[in-house]
């Protein structure tokens, strides 16, 4: 089976070493959780996969295609949820969600909003919603874009436990074993709830 994500011996150093020979392989349609303490390099790794940052050495292959700095984020067939929600402030919520959709289908948008418990916010602008709601709008936008690989960097942090559990349940029921997802979290509870393969990343001293 072709690997959706194949990362080999990735190294990245800022003033300190963050990634040292980090390797990871994810099958097509598999959901994998990347788990690790704050500062261990999870977001750095996601940024490298997405093409927002370059590794010092090592290789990244997405859907069988070798990635290098000449392949920009929008050519990688990925949808990304950043740790901090990044939304277009001049667009209402529904347009933010529709942004990456090849065919803007309002039914799909409203279904996603209901499923993620943000129904009714469609006409509001990002400055008129809470941080937790903005995170779920960003998640809805990534899901709606229907890309080959979903990179979710702490997509449900800062959300109350009850809503978080409902959102996790929705992801498990609708995306697990169907979509290639790399789900980053420092929460063991979230990781265990998703019930998929867990990769632990350690902080480098
Ligand atoms: N642009 C940068 N320049 C210098 N150091 C950086 C940069 N980005 C991240 N770092 C450092 O690299 C290490 C890993 O950061 P990263 O954000 O990848 O960790 P993380 O595991 O995602 O943490 P968290 O769970 O808190 O988001 C940290 O020590 C951080 O301070």
From TrEMBL:
Any GO molecular function: ATP binding
Keywords, alphabetical: ATP-binding, Nucleotide-binding, Transport
User: Where does the ABC transporter domain lie?
Assistant: 2-203
The name this protein carries in UniProt is ABC transporter ATP-binding protein
């Amino acid at each position: 089976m072709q690997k959706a994500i194949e990362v080999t011996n990735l190294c990245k150093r800022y003033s300190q070493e963050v990634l040292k020979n980090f390797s990871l392989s994810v099958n097509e349609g598999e959901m994998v959780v990347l788990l690790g303490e704050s500062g261990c390099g999870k977001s750095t790794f996601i940024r490298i996969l997405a093409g927002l940052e370059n590794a010092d050495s090592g290789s990244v292959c997405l859907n069988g295609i070798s990635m290098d700095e000449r392949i920009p984020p929008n050519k990688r067939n990925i949808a990304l949820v950043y740790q901090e929600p990044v939304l277009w402030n001049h667009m209402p919520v529904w347009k933010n969600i529709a942004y990456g959709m090849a065919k803007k289908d309002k039914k799909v948008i409203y279904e996603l909003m209901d499923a993620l418990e943000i129904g009714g916010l469609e006409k509001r602008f990002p400055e008129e919603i809470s941080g937790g709601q903005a995170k779920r709008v960003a998640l809805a936008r990534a899901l709606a874009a229907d890309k080959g690989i979903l990179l979710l960097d702490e997509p449900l942090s800062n959300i109350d436990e009850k809503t978080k559990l409902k959102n996790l349940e929705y992801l498990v029921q609708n995306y697990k074993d169907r979509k290639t997802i790399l789900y980053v979290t420092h929460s063991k509870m979230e990781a265990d709830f998703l019930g998929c393969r867990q990769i632990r990343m350690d902080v480098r001293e």
